[in-house]
Amino acid sequence: MTRTWTPLGAWAGILADGHVGTAGAPGVIALARDGLGVATLIAAEGGEAALAAALAKRPGLDLPSSPAVAHAGAHSLVWAGPGQWLLVAGHRAGFPETLAALSCLAAVSDQSDGRAVLRLSGSKIRETLAKGCMLDLHPSAFPVGMAALTAIAHIGVHLWRGDDGPDGAVFEMMVPRSLAGSFWSWFAASAAEFGCAVSVAEMTAGRG
Amino acid sequence: MRIPCPHCGARDAQEFSYLGAADPQRPDGLDATEAAMLDYVYQRDNPAGRHRELWYHGAGCHAWLTVTRDTRTHAIESIEPVRRRGAGAAA
Ligand SMILES: [Zn+2]
């Protein structure tokens, strides 16, 4: 008998495709992102310029020096504190090689299996997040491309605003994987009154 | 109370941890007298007014900050990253 080991996504057993709360057209849309490559980068003391030059070459990203996110192709680079960034890749193919190339310029820590990411949108997403997020997410205070580190329901959250989609503003929220269940319990309860469509992103190639 | 983090912007105080007075400097290791260590570890002023203190933005950017605050009103006069104090700064 052949046994196959399949790694579970960060949201497996926590949420599934479906609808939460009030029936009808959903006010909130939650997409569980799976199979992402995620890593923290901490520049060596005084080594920020060298790291910036390397990232500009591959994958072609500008190092944000304020709480913001930069995108290039399948990669995003999110500010994570002074001298620290989060590298997010849409898939894991080639991700270890990308990290290896950066390892002499920064302290690189692969967090692909350590973090869980939700993509949130919908006409009632700000009302939902306002129940627990201490930040002002109004467009005038939190424009497209802005990032922040904060806490929601006592859980450390890294969030950034992606480009607007068909359902309006898009917020990416990343939490430690071990707290994904707790975060979802807060989020699902907060979104229930507006109705929330839930889906899990297709597994992508290169998952490892 | 809201603390205007120089990296993150104004945030609720619950995102931060308080360490204490910013000015006491640890005496130099084995050369320090007992009295100097006692002063460093235990003796603190308790001013009603201007106070320089250390805060850690644990739920945000993970930076240590030097905050100058009026203890009577919580008004913050200035705030800067501890890192700016130079290499080898405490905390
Ligand atoms: Zn901060």
Secondary-structure map:
The complex is a heterodimer of chains A (208) and B (91).
Chain A: E1 18-20, E2 28-33, E3 37-43, H1 48-57, E4 69-72, E5 75-79, E6 84-89, H2 95-102, E7 106-110, E8 115-121, H3 125-129, E9 147-152, E10 155-165, E11 168-176, H4 180-191, E12 196-200
Parallel strand pairs in A: 2-12
Antiparallel strand pairs in A: 1-12, 2-8, 3-6, 3-7, 4-5, 5-6, 8-11, 9-10, 10-11
Chain B: E1 2-5, E2 9-12, E3 17-21, H1 34-42, E4 50-56, E5 64-70, E6 76-81
Antiparallel strand pairs in B: 1-2, 3-4, 4-5, 5-6
Bound molecules: zinc ion.
Zinc ion binds at residues 5, 7-8, 57, 60-61, 63 of chain B.
Describe this structure in words.
Chain A is an alpha+beta fold. Chain A folds into two domains: 106 residues, Probable tRNA modification gtpase trme, domain 1 (Gyrase A, domain 2, 2-Layer Sandwich); 74 residues, Alpha-Beta Plaits. Chain A is built from four helices and twelve strands, in the order βββαβββαββαβββαβ. In chain A, the strands form two sheets. Chain A has a seven-stranded mixed beta sheet. A five-stranded antiparallel beta sheet of chain A has the order 4-5-6-3-7, covered by helices on one side. Chain A is globular and about 50 Å long. Chain B has 91 residues and is mainly β. In chain B, the strands form two sheets. Chain B has a four-stranded antiparallel beta sheet, with no helix packed on it. Chain B has a two-stranded antiparallel sheet with strand order 1-2. In chain B, β5 and β6 form a beta hairpin. The two termini of chain B are 23 Å apart. At the A-B interface, β9 of A face β2 of B. The site of zinc ion has 7 residues of chain B, from loops.
Q: What is the CATH third-level topology name of the largest domain in chain A?
A: Gyrase A, domain 2
- What structural category characterises the helix and strand content of chain B? mainly beta
Into which percent range does the helicity of residues of chain A fall? 10-25%
What is the oligomer described by this structure?
heterodimer
* Bulk shape of chain A: globular
**Mind describing the biggest β-sheet of chain A?**
7 strands, mixed
In this entry the ligands are: zinc ion
Could you tell me the CATH topology label of chain B: Folate-binding fold
Helix segment count of chain A? 4
Radius of gyration of chain A: 17 Å
| Arithmetic mean of pLDDT of chain B | 91
* Strand order, sheet with most strands of chain A: 1-12-2-8-11-10-9
What overall form of chain B do the CA principal axes indicate? globular
Termini gap of chain B:
23 Å
The largest chain-to-chain contact, stated as pair and per-chain residue counts, equals: A-B, 11 and 14 residues
> What is the CATH architecture descriptor of chain B?
2-Layer Sandwich
